Amino acid sequence: MSEPLVLVGNAGAVRTLSLNRPAALNSFTSELHAELLAALEAAAADAEVRCVVLTGAGRAFCAGQDLADPMVAPDTTPGAAPKDLGHVIEKLYGPLVQRIRSMPVPVVAAVNGVAAGAGANLALCCDLVLAARSASFIQAFTKIGLVPDTGGTWLLPRLVGPARALGIAMLGDKLPAEEAARIGLIWQVVDDAALADAAAALAGRLAAMPSRALVATRAAMNAAQTMDLDTALAEEARLQRELGAANDYREGVEAFRAKRAPVFKDR
């Protein structure tokens, strides 16, 4: 049997999903898409999972789309119809982005090497991005005559502002991890040898926190980007009403009063 394209590991309430095409820098094929989406769905459905870590096997996080995949490789036969890349986005990349952005638990990207094209935006879809110091991010789309996908056109301006986003997307230059952190594209850079431990520590910390509140924070901040202040305040009131009736709020207050560590269970 062939080795799985996504390796699944568990450590307490943390589930780690590792893209596993190291010889191809973990670039996407339709098969990898299917396995990753299934692994994310399984994590979302498992009540024991309270944080997910996404990383890559070998020396890369993800080099983006495998351009040799028959679904996207141009047919050079004279008169052949062009490949419908829009269909690929709708069928594969869109559902993957929507699943990550709607996970019922926090998602941490541990970027261990190059993250290019769709691989870069896959990482940026996650809630918090840790990167090894030697890692890099490349919006490689214009180099092959395309626009950023995998949520890139939505993510980049929100993360770094329209001027930087346009420069990063148009020029397609390699962005070292330290520069990515400096401009606010990612959360944090750590030494290469420390990445796995740092990701495990961060994921463990998130797993011990109130999952519903973390996920609601993500959703509220995303929604607020298109709201006026009054609407955002109303949404905050709605969320506080909902979360204030949940077990985690009561547990958090009781733990604070008792000067003990809380044990959050809602998900």
Name some characteristics of this structure.
267 residues; alpha/beta; 2-enoyl-CoA Hydratase, Chain A, domain 1; Lyase 2-enoyl-coa Hydratase, Chain  A, domain 2; 2 domains; 6-stranded mixed beta sheet; 4-stranded mixed beta sheet; 10 strands
What is the secondary structure topology, with strand pairs?
Elements: E1 6-11, E2 14-19, H1 30-45, E3 51-56, E4 60-62, H2 85-101, E5 107-111, E6 114-116, H3 118-125, E7 128-132, E8 136-138, H4 152-160, H5 162-171, E9 174-176, H6 177-182, E10 188-190, H7 195-207, H8 211-224, H9 229-244, H10 247-258
Parallel strand pairs: 2-3, 3-5, 4-6, 5-7, 6-8, 7-10
Antiparallel strand pairs: 1-2, 8-9
Helix pairs in contact: 1-2, 4-5, 8-9
First and last CA, distance: 36 Å
From the 3D coordinates, which CATH architecture of the largest domain would you assign?
Alpha-Beta Complex
Largest sheet geometry: 6 strands, mixed
Give helix and strand order, one letter per element, not per position: EEHEEHEEHEEHHEHEHHHH
The 3D shape can be described as globular
Alpha-beta content class: alpha/beta
Helix content: 40-55%
CATH level-4 homologous superfamily of the largest domain: 2-enoyl-CoA Hydratase, Chain A, domain 1
Global Rg: 20 Å
CATH fold label of the largest domain: 2-enoyl-CoA Hydratase, Chain A, domain 1
Average pLDDT rating: 96
Low-confidence stretches: none
